[in-house]
């Protein structure tokens, strides 16, 4: 492509309203422009990247045996009423009314439409498994669209839906899609993790999110240093310590700690590590038959964080997890929350497994202004029920049994999910089984945020000068830059020749052929645009029979003899 | 593709609500399904065709130098208010309200969005011409969606917009797009005509519609038998006859024609051809300064039809064309409309050029119940002003000077238009010219109905058995059909081998590999689906070393020696 025939819309300044790096760089490199809040136009530069991502996704879906369809953006309310989501879905569902006063919505997702299609088209178990995907525009009326393409209102998703009679069949397709997703993100060239995700009531390993690791991610991902185990921090098990609890060495002592209520304050004042201070959190218990809710104490190490998802699943604890109001604590326990401890506590106590192996610990004395030190389980108080109550931390043993946990931030770009019969049951999507009996199908669903992948790739690959595209999705592979082309016929002729030659060799070349363009601007622009390789052609080099080559990640440029340029490129440009 | 892994959703019955052939066949062949009125899901079979059309359009747009962008479906009302269309556009514009009570619409077209983009991005005449296209979902809230994909509410368009300072620059891009459109429709394999279209006030050859010729078309297209001239019937000029008017041979005679008011009645009763009877139509004239409207008489041959578009453009005639009410005719001319004639008429008269060369004609006598025969211009009455007042008819000389006119029906699948400054003026889309002065850009716009092309291709290519796809957009090129594969290991093995071999040779093959599928059903299905070539493999043929080949348009099948199958296919399957 010749730059003179291509819209290069780079900006020198950072747009003031862009916070996320990818948002800034997509605007600055001329990939997108905002039309209205959460609505973006893809300019030619951005769309080239978008289409490359789309093509990789399509190829891998086809290879995985999914069949491409295309469903409407506009969906009739009747189907959403059947599934119950017309009422349940919040204001993110943009509901609209046509000229005949019929109600529709802009599809944020297509479970209803595909389930309606499939219940009409499939008749027999022989047609299963069936797996359909589309790459298509979605709309979610986000209350506060932000981070540019990352959380836009109109965006492009690849969404797939599979249909089965047996769980084993669903699992098989699920595994196949898991593997296809890995291929997609590997081919794009991203550092990512398939992450065990919350499945609500379904349980098992029936949902994975695919996260691109990047400091700007919104989610904390825990993963093993030695295996491919990865999970949202909230879901990673803090495995039970294998060490025995040390024997007591101290006497239990009551110490005045006036005005000291936080772990930090207590730990400093008592001169013990926060690991040796146990904190006691008071939450509401489950309702009894009369509708009364008692209190439950949760005991953790001072340096650990309560994991609410884990806690609320425990027997006896109210769900959703609710911290007891101060007044109720005061009234029941006769003490303010900052001075509570497990010794002599007259309510049910649950102890985190890591807290259960601490000896000689400090804790609240159940009397305002006092703490206990040198406390030991099974000597000063009985060891209550233990459970996994906390978030994992870096260095915890991995639940998979191999290595320890690292924690990084991740951007969710894909999600696969065993839906079960939520939609097929509500909408009566059945086929005849081998015995000629109608059976409700079970479903899987599989999404990739195609436009979001573009932004996530930038969040993971940039420097002070701009984007550093993974080769597979770079808008162009090579930037061809002439020095003073308008003054040098030799430079012009050599560039035209190289452009022909490199294009013929199958490279995607951006020839910066604009008359009188300044070298500094061209170098800055092509770095900002993240083009992985650049070749600079000038008179001085040509006299010596050389041009200059630099990879986008290289620290230094190198002189390359013209006759060796193709070889140099062959060994540097990643084959796609 | 193996049929066992592909959704073949053919229907035996014609869906009762489908009128158009393409609608029936798209449903029956399992290409699309209706989700709601005017909303369709593309099934895998249909989407394969859709994507092939899309790819051809994209390639030719790229070749023509247009740059691809992608604009949002959802557009803010503010831009439409700037252009004035928020109020002007009827209820086809689906207006919606987001959660913050901001107003948007679903884009039926993108002039406003692209003009907004370009006024922000382009600064200088040096960046012109610029031409941007997208392939994208549009929405028009048709009052009565019909003919399936042909007039759906949600559909896919390729729309392009170009920007210029000089008319010559616009004309150049326009010509380039005209030529690209011809390439698109030629590559798809359609019989089409670029047709001069009405340009309203702009005039000139600044708008062409691209029509696929098909009996079911909604428009009448007149085109030359000897050149590429084509125009909407309404716009084709009826050229002035070159023949001189014959000399009079009859005396003017007044004849009683009681109760005979139509050309048909008069022509039969007087025993003269309708060509010899002139009809006189009375319309309103232009308002004078006092606001009064007189009457004007339009005189045409009895076998010709008035062209209202032409008439209303004439000096002295009211626009839009309005027929005078009977009462006003009676009051002014003292005669009922069926007996009016030009002889002695006291109002302005305009004579169609073909009517002006008729001698010895019959016409109304301006007295109820009487006609005149043997009337001659310039003997019995002065020849009034002549003009082109009529629709062309088959056999008329072509206005291009070559050949005569044919008239066929056409389906509009593309439209190119020199927009001028309608949007750029209203939205202040300017660039600096060579003198550093701000100039409003002039625009062109260029549309192709991508989804509609699919339907139009069917309307032009079908028979009693189903679709007959042009090769370039067929969902599959070759259907490979085994006879009793579940009973014959030889058939199975040979089919697997051929499937491998043909696929490796680059053909798009649909292998009808479903166990126990009946031959008759497979033959009917693959004909219905319009697959251009089929190869049938059976035990009997294999024993003789042959398979059966038939092209979709062939009357007869032929036995082909296995070793020659590839050669046969090479000479029959059109290279794409």
UniProtKB/TrEMBL annotation, chains A, B:
> CDD domains from the xrefs?
ProRS-INS, ProRS_anticodon_short, ProRS_core_prok
Q: Which Pfam families match?
A: HGTP_anticodon, tRNA-synt_2b, tRNA_edit
Its GO CC terms are: cytosol
Query: Which keywords accompany this UniProt record?
Result: Aminoacyl-tRNA synthetase, ATP-binding, Cytoplasm, Ligase, Nucleotide-binding, Protein biosynthesis
Give the residue spans that cross the bilayer. Answer: none
Enzyme class comes to ligase
> Which reaction is this enzyme known to catalyze?
tRNA(Pro) + L-proline + ATP = L-prolyl-tRNA(Pro) + AMP + diphosphate
Domain of life of the native organism: Bacteria
Instruction: Give yes or no: UniProt keyword Ligase.
Output: yes
Give the E.C. number(s).
6.1.1.15
Q: Kindly list any coiled-coil regions of this protein.
A: none
The chain positions of domain Aminoacyl-transfer RNA synthetases class-II family profile read 17-470
Q: What does this protein do?
A: Catalyzes the attachment of proline to tRNA(Pro) in a two-step reaction: proline is first activated by ATP to form Pro-AMP and then transferred to the acceptor end of tRNA(Pro). As ProRS can inadvertently accommodate and process non-cognate amino acids such as alanine and cysteine, to avoid such errors it has two additional distinct editing activities against alanine. One activity is designated as 'pretransfer' editing and involves the tRNA(Pro)-independent hydrolysis of activated Ala-AMP.
Subunit record text? Homodimer.
How are the domains described in the entry? Answer: Consists of three domains: the N-terminal catalytic domain, the editing domain and the C-terminal anticodon-binding domain.
Name listed for the protein in its UniProt record: Proline--tRNA ligase
